[in-house]
Design a protein that fits this description.
Two copies of one chain form a homodimer. The first copy, chain A, has two domains: 156 residues, Quinone Oxidoreductase, Chain A, domain 1, CATH 3.90.180.10; 150 residues, Rossmann fold (3-Layer(aba) Sandwich), CATH 3.40.50. Helix content of chain A is 24%, strand content 25%. Chain A contains nine helices and 15 strands. Chains A and B meet through helix 7 and strand 13 of A and helix 7 and strand 13 of B. Chains A, B: This is NADP-dependent oxidoreductase.
């Protein structure tokens, strides 16, 4: 196909936000899609994954991945369709997952290390699932829980952000391991969802202000594994209920990402000492060579009907800025996905 | 011997302090030493160990050990001499270590679980060493470093409270493991001591206000293991310098024990995430069945001349309150010991 008439719409980072990002922190730009050369592919973006980690990528400074540069296309994972190919690796029509960025087309070498494209099978699961349990959030949850949390059957696992992309999977994987699973989420609707739809044993609505009492009631034997996506007061409160040799998986701290004041450190961290407990960070990329095992396990459970996911799909690349902000005010319900084009 | 004429001098907990303890938080009391019955021994206290943990024992509430009750003799470990025995376990003249309490005589069953008396050999090392490297601080350091910190040869180990009882041993054990060892201590004299006498590679005087620069200079390859005895700002600063997969051993937080405001949590704890690092607590009692291995290893090094310790010995049980407070203002230099009687 000729690509010369295609226009690429892009969101580029315009400024490093202080506190909560605002729409002006990105520029919306357009440019013609260039022709591909040997070894390259052209991918049409269908779905983009909107993740809390994206807030961190907007900051300057050392982290587990380099910051997005000013005027660079905003980094994002996504699912797209190969619409032109001069590579044997992908054929036109293939569905691929990778670092497409917030843009309507991605052009580059089929084996580009940064984009790290790989084929996904739309027959095995609907495409948005590949941005959820079968994608980065799912891999984060699966390996973070099993490798760092190391839950044993009969133990109590607590997960915050329970209705979010990572939390949904953490809870369901823990149920498959034979654990008691208690979620923490904001609002009755999300709590009902993870209990009634996903099979969590209980869920505490932190917005009710009764987190401490909820933990006492629903974790009568204490907390063995806490998978933390939120940080702040919730982390501090859970620290008061942990058991001897508890494992706390530090996956994120969404409550702190837009702080303009310093991060609130866990004042109750000495509970780690009293309980000989452990707090450990997880970054999903460390498990890249084993993603296929996580995908296979969860796809199997999905086919058996014992593993469900929920996506919150917003349509239209022009809605990128305000949709991303939903993550930070609890506005999304399930894995947040931006649909950029029809399949 | 008749014990009926002996007088036991005791410090009993009078009040639960808020913030820094003061002398009025204990009562000084005297009572006649009672005669022992079958199975019991009478121990004359020679040396008492003064430790930061004692501050925590004065607080109400759940911890790794029950609080000292109001009007109970203040808990303390010590070394004493058996002066009367109706037990086959100990003979008159034996030197013993155990939970004697802040009193001049201890009376009880030879196999009392709480006191947990065991014989020490004055021929192998001077008695105060059994409250230092060959006692609880040494065991805390030895097992905390090796089991939780898991240092490997060539790695960089940083320890705070470097001139203190635990810190001295952590650093020297790490040197024996082939690590680069950097201490953090308050004042030039302590820093010179751990470098020149104990063989640390470097020591940073935190009172100079140049901790961050010191870490950059002396840990050019970053920090692999941080053994934290102090908490607060020092913990936060070290967190900015840790390496991938670093291990942070939480042994204590002496900067926070007398807080009347909430404990300062480590604001930089998300460095654990970025670096996939671990923060884990250690309580020495968990390793009780292996103390003999730690004692044997360090006694051997002492005999070889490759392991030294320093004690700061204050004489007179009546000095107990003000001596304990030295721990919290950095007044002691080496393991703080209260000598209660002549050997």
């Amino acid at each position: 196909m000729s690509t010369s008439t295609l226009i690429n719409q892009q969101y580029r980072l315009a400024a490093r936000p202080i506190g909560m990002p605002k729409p002006e922190d990105w520029h919306f730009t357009t440019e013609p899609v260039r022709d591909i050369v040997d070894g390259e592919v052209l991918v049409k973006t269908l779905y983009l994954s909107l993740d809390p980690a994206m807030r961190g990528w907007m900051n300057e400074g050392k982290s587990y991945i380099r910051p997005v540069a000013i005027e660079e296309v905003m980094r994002a994972g996504g699912i797209g369709k190969v619409v032109a190919s001069k590579s044997a690796k992908f054929a036109v029509g293939d569905m691929v997952s990778g670092g497409l960025g917030v843009q309507t087309y991605w052009t580059g070498a089929a084996d580009d290390k940064t984009a790290a494209l790989y084929k996904v099978d739309p027959a095995m699961a609907p495409l948005p699932k590949y941005l959820n349990a079968l994608g980065m959030p799912g891999m984060t949850a699966y390996f973070g829980l099993l490798e760092v949390g190391q839950p044993k059957a009969g133990e109590t696992v607590v997960v915050s952000g329970a209705a979010g992309a990572v939390g949904q999977t953490v809870g369901q994987v823990a149920k498959h391991m034979g654990c008691r699973v208690v979620g923490i989420a904001g609002g009755k609707e999300k709590c009902d969802f993870v209990v009634n739809e996903l099979g969590f044993d209980a869920c505490i609505d932190y917005k009710s202000g009764a987190l401490r009492e909820g933990l006492k009631e629903h974790c009568p034997k204490g907390v063995d594994v806490y998978f933390d996506n939120v940080g702040g007061d919730i982390l501090d409160t859970v620290l008061t209920r942990i058991n001897l040799k508890a494992r706390i998986v530090i996956c994120g701290a969404i409550s702190q990402y837009n702080n303009t004041t310093p991060v609130k450190g866990p004042a109750n961290y000495l509970s780690l000492l009293v309980n000989r407990a452990r707090m450990e960070g997880i970054v999903v990329f460390d498990y890249a060579d084993r993603y296929h095992k996580g995908v296979a396990a969860m796809a199997q459970w999905m086919q058996e009907g014992t593993f469900k996911t929920r996506e919150d799909i917003v349509v239209g690349i022009e809605k990128f800025p305000q949709t991303l902000l939903m993550l930070f005010n609890g506005g999304n319900f399930g894995k947040l996905v931006l649909q950029v084009a029809e399949e």
